[in-house]
From TrEMBL:
<keyword id="KW-1003">Cell membrane</keyword>
<feature type="transmembrane region" description="Helical">
    <location>
        <begin position="12"/>
        <end position="31"/>
    </location>
</feature>
<dbReference type="GO" id="GO:0005886">
    <property type="term" value="C:plasma membrane"/>
</dbReference>
<comment type="similarity">
    <text>Belongs to the UPF0056 (MarC) family.</text>
</comment>
<dbReference type="Pfam" id="PF01914">
    <property type="entry name" value="MarC"/>
</dbReference>
<feature type="transmembrane region" description="Helical">
    <location>
        <begin position="182"/>
        <end position="203"/>
    </location>
</feature>
<keyword id="KW-0812">Transmembrane</keyword>
<keyword id="KW-0472">Membrane</keyword>
<dbReference type="InterPro" id="IPR002771">
    <property type="entry name" value="Multi_antbiot-R_MarC"/>
</dbReference>
<keyword id="KW-1133">Transmembrane helix</keyword>
<protein>
    <recommendedName>
        <fullName>UPF0056 membrane protein</fullName>
    </recommendedName>
</protein>
<feature type="transmembrane region" description="Helical">
    <location>
        <begin position="139"/>
        <end position="161"/>
    </location>
</feature>
<feature type="transmembrane region" description="Helical">
    <location>
        <begin position="51"/>
        <end position="72"/>
    </location>
</feature>
<feature type="transmembrane region" description="Helical">
    <location>
        <begin position="78"/>
        <end position="99"/>
    </location>
</feature>
<feature type="transmembrane region" description="Helical">
    <location>
        <begin position="111"/>
        <end position="133"/>
    </location>
</feature>
Length: 207
């Protein structure tokens, strides 16, 4: 039961941070206005592959980075919480912007990896959260649960991005903004939990 609760929490958390509907709206603003269903499907596949590869790289090398720089897990929680809080404020304010001029010389398929895959879909907030969740895993079963949780979100991300043209048509820009703001509230609440937990544990170590 506890394993399922952790899986559910991780899945919802990762979904909120990834914000596939919000990312799909940004992606459409970067891509050609005349993009076809076939092209958007290819882009969705490439972007999803990118974030999956990034996830496994972080999962495997994340601990090495912490050890290399001597960073404590609780310090990462506090810093990660601050990053997520700033991200949440941006989501709630609806002020996510991307400089389209910088990417105007790239074709749509090139944009699938950078910047849509990294850093828009897979940014610093997701990076720190994955490392924190990995360090919280007490067994290989819980670690496997994290992998499944991310893969589920990657599948949802793929389906949303693939059908982003239809989603924009049915719920409109206003609907996409509302969803992003709601995801921002969840990310903000998670950020506060990370910060408080990290500060409490660090304080216990010093006093």
């Amino acid at each position: 039961m506890e394993l399922f609760q952790n899986f559910l929490q991780q899945t919802i958390t990762l979904f909120a941070i990834m914000d596939p509907i919000g990312v799909s709206a940004i992606a459409l603003s970067l891509l050609s206005p005349n993009i076809t269903k076939t092209q958007i499907a290819i882009i969705a596949k490439k972007t999803t592959s990118t974030i999956l590869i990034a996830f496994f790289v972080v999962l495997i090398t994340g601990d090495l980075v912490l050890k290399l720089f001597g960073i404590h897990e609780d310090s990462l929680k506090v810093m990660g919480g601050i990053i997520l809080l700033l991200m949440a404020i941006t989501m709630v304010r609806g002020s996510v912007t991307v400089n389209k001029k910088e990417n105007s010389d790239k074709n749509d398929e090139e944009l699938a990896i950078i910047p849509i895959g990294i850093p828009i879909a897979f940014g610093t907030g997701l990076f720190t959260t994955i490392i924190i969740f990995k360090n919280q895993a007490a067994s290989s079963v819980e670690l496997f649960s994290l992998v499944i949780s991310f893969c589920v979100n990657a599948l949802v991300f793929y389906l949303v991005l693939k059908n982003s043209i239809y989603i924009k048509k049915y719920i409109g820009v206003t609907g996409q903004n509302i969803v992003t703001k709601l995801m921002g509230l969840i990310v903000g609440a998670l950020a506060v939990q990370f910060i408080i937990s990290g500060v409490v544990h660090l304080a216990k170590g010093y006093f």
